[in-house]
Write a structure and sequence with these properties.
Structural class: alpha+beta
Length: 721
């Protein structure tokens, strides 16, 4: 069972409302607390209770269901008890699974067991589209390409009838909608090296879109169901040729068969895949001897190298396409840990861009397109609630130990074929660059127990299952924790935000980040020495501490505690925050490009004429710097921007661009919308943004504490250098 702290339950909303998360509510979710796990007990739900109100993040404060079928298999393995009590999704991968199959209980029995456990969150995968998974034979389904009628009447309708039973009204039910289907329409339905005739058929007949739309509409009508649509992973959709078309495809499906974008509570990435959560030593903005890592063989011009940045970037694009601004993302971390002997302990050599990338990357697959029973993979982050901005939870969608497909043909009555991508001797296809598959040998049919893989996942877990380091990795020799951060102080407070800064900790191998705790609960993490805690209650006292951590997982003692009290609400000040994204992944070209927006998290309108933002940077030269507004949702004519010298000696902050507003009022819960700014020198020489104070590598909008927001002359958001 997880020993991390439990999440904090949020109050619900009106019973039948779809997701409509305000900016203030969104920031309140970033609590960083692990999921509480249900264990068998005597508690049960009263069938006459009123349905629990829909909440913004169903994982916050929830006690999720532990699948006893999977748990028993895991516990029977040597060392398996370390993860046997972790919550995971239940897969409804064929019609027969609804009633139950030999060795696996049906949906009703799972739901009843969840009530017996005292759980209030249940996770289920909806996975039986006509012509399912048209590009991977191992996960083909039972329904033919034209059997959309059976999908609706024999599969979705019976599931919906069970989930709508009043006996389960107190359960928050998270439904993962149809892995791999819609992304295949984007990349594999014609015109690419990986295209298949089967995917072309599904694109032409529209049954993937119809099926997903029907599932969203039907399940979305059940007030305690939260739909999350599968959105592949960065190694599939991270290229600009796929990224926006995928978001558009998701929007099309979500408005088909009576569905609306309001039926989509969020999206999930990396379902049943192995893409690493975070690359600790590799960033998409890195370059080697003037060559960007995007040109390396591994990255291959992708715009992302890990799932966290991809999920956050995709979330912003989905909002731009018309999905709700409070959209939440899930990341499947069950099998993307990549620990063990081969995990890097630092950046790779700079002899070439390929040497640097291959030496730096934690993801050790032969090719990012390899997906079947990957050799060297490990258990990833354990399920945790709201770990990062925009992320509702890290979850285990594909339970560790369940095969992705057989390594050779095996007769079965489940409709699952043999895919050569599961054969370790296969030399690949256009979807994996004609590379070896990296699959483990002797694997069973998809979904069946694969003991050898389970043992390898345990051995290569990252973070390690015992909390220590991996053999041969940074944790074998490094057991020294960083020093405690010092000098914790508030740099600004408002009715809903406390901005903090502290003096950096030290460590024998280097500090990799800091965890911030409010009243004993982790509320967020940062790699800098500043953090803005938002979504707070006006006029309330809080206590903060900060812990440092290193690459081996060692954690420092807490800093000295700091008491901070938010100001009273109701005024026109102290309720604004700044969100930022970089529009330029190269830190060494001749422009600085960014997107900014201001969000009013308070209860009163704010006069925008009183608002100024400051983005601090160093121009790295003597030439004059010019600012330009390329686009703004409220119109560039309403935005002022001036570059000024800061007059101080803080590193990376000799200048700042000050952004203001000519007029206007920002209503409670509203945002200005994006403001796209660009800076360049008069001689168009290059900047070096790598050490600029306010720069971040986030490509999706996130709260940014290193951009200051001033109301008049008072700093009410962020930390000045």
């Amino acid at each position: 069972m997880s020993t991390r702290s439990r999440g904090t339950r949020l109050s619900g909303r009106t019973k039948h409302s779809r997701r409509g998360r305000s900016a203030a509510a969104l920031t309140a979710l970033f609590l960083g607390a692990s999921l509480a796990v249900a264990v068998p007990g005597s508690a049960s739900a009263d069938a006459e209770d009123v349905t629990a109100a829909r909440v913004d993040n169903p994982y916050v404060g929830a006690t999720p269901y532990v699948n006893p079928d999977w748990s028993a298999r895991a516990a029977a393995e040597p060392g398996g008890s370390a993860i046997a009590d972790e919550p995971s999704f239940v897969w409804m991968d064929r019609i027969a699974a609804i009633e139950g199959t030999p060795g696996a209980r049906g949906l009703k029995e799972h739901l009843d067991t969840a009530l017996d456990q005292g759980a209030d969150l249940f996770q289920v995968v909806i996975y039986d589209l006509p012509g399912r998974d048209c590009a991977a034979l191992a996960s083909n389904g039972e329904l033919g390409p034209t059997e959309i009628g059976r999908y609706k009447s024999e599969y979705i309708d019976p599931i919906a009838e069970l989930l709508a039973d009043p006996a389960y009204a107190e359960l928050r039910i998270v439904a993962l909608i149809e892995p791999d289907s819609l992304p295949n329409l984007v990349t594999n339905a014609g015109g690419t090296a990986g295209s298949t005739p089967e995917c072309a058929v599904m694109k032409e007949n529209g049954n993937y879109e119809k099926g997903v739309g029907y599932a969203l509409s039907t399940l979305g009508d059940i007030p305690n169901v939260y739909n999350y649509v599968d959105a592949a992973h960065h190694g599939w959709l991270g290229w600009d040729s796929n990224f926006v078309p995928a978001a558009q495809q998701f929007k099309k499906a979500a408005t088909t068969e009576g569905a609306t974008v309001g039926d989509v509570h969020g999206f999930i990435v990396n379902t049943a895949n192995y893409s690493v959560l975070k690359e600790p030593y590799l960033k998409i903005t890195d370059s080697v001897n003037g060559t960007t890592v995007r040109q390396s063989k591994w990255v291959d011009w992708n715009y992302y190298v890990d799932e966290l940045t991809f999920a956050q970037g995709l979330r912003e694009e989905l909002v731009r396409q018309g999905f709700d601004s409070g959209l939440g993302m899930l990341i499947d971390t069950a099998r993307n840990g990549w620990g063990g002997d081969d995990r890097p302990t630092g950046p790779g050599p700079t002899t070439s861009v390929d040497a640097y990338v291959d030496g730096s990357r934690a993801d050790r697959r032969i090719h990012a397109g390899n997906w079947c029973n990957q050799s060297g993979a490990g258990v990833g982050e354990r399920p945790v609630t709201a770990p990062e901005p925009g992320i509702d939870a890290y979850v285990w969608a594909k339970p560790p130990g369940e095969s992705d497909g057989s390594s050779e043909p095996i007769d079965n009555d489940e409709g699952k074929g043999f895919d050569r991508m599961c054969d370790p001797t296969y030399e690949g296809n256009g979807r994996n660059g004609f590379s070896l598959t990296g699959a483990l040998p002797d694997s069973p049919v998809a979904g069946h127990w694969f003991s050898a893989q389970f043992q390898e996942l345990l051995a290569n877990a990252h973070p390690p299952l015992d909390g220590g380091g991996e053999p041969g990795g940074p944790g074998e020799d490094d057991t020294t924790a960083p020093t405690a951060p010092t000098g914790l102080k508030t740099t600004a407070t408002s009715a809903t935000t406390v901005s903090l800064s502290w003096t950096a900790a030290t460590d024998d191998t280097g500090v990799t980040g800091y965890d911030v705790y409010r009243d004993g609960t982790r509320v967020g993490s940062t790699t800098t020495t500043a953090y803005a805690d938002s979504g707070l209650t006006p006029g309330t006292a809080y206590t903060y501490t900060v812990r440092a951590k290193d690459a081996a997982g060692n954690v420092s003692p807490p800093s000295a505690s700091l008491a901070a009290t938010t100001t009273e609400g109701g005024g026109s000040t102290g309720a604004l925050k700044v969100q930022y994204r970089t529009s330029d992944t190269s830190p060494t070209d001749n422009q600085i490009r960014m997107g900014l927006q201001v969000v009013n998290t308070g209860q009163s309108a704010v006069n925008l004429a009183d608002v100024k933002l400051r983005y601090w940077f160093t121009p790295d030269g003597s030439g004059a710097v010019t600012s330009t507004c390329d686009w703004a949702q409220l119109g560039c004519g309403g935005v002022t921007h001036t570059v000024k010298q800061a007059g101080g000696s803080a590193p990376g902050a000799s200048h700042y661009v000050e952004v203001g507003f000519a007029s206007g009022s920002l209503a409670p819960g509203a945002a200005t919308g994006e403001i796209q700014l660009r800076l360049n020198k008069a001689d168009w020489s290059n900047f070096d943004e790598s050490d600029d104070y306010s720069r971040s590598t986030s490509t999706g909008f996130t709260d940014h504490a290193k951009i200051g927001l001033y109301l008049g002359t008072a700093l009410t958001w962020g930390t000045a250098p």
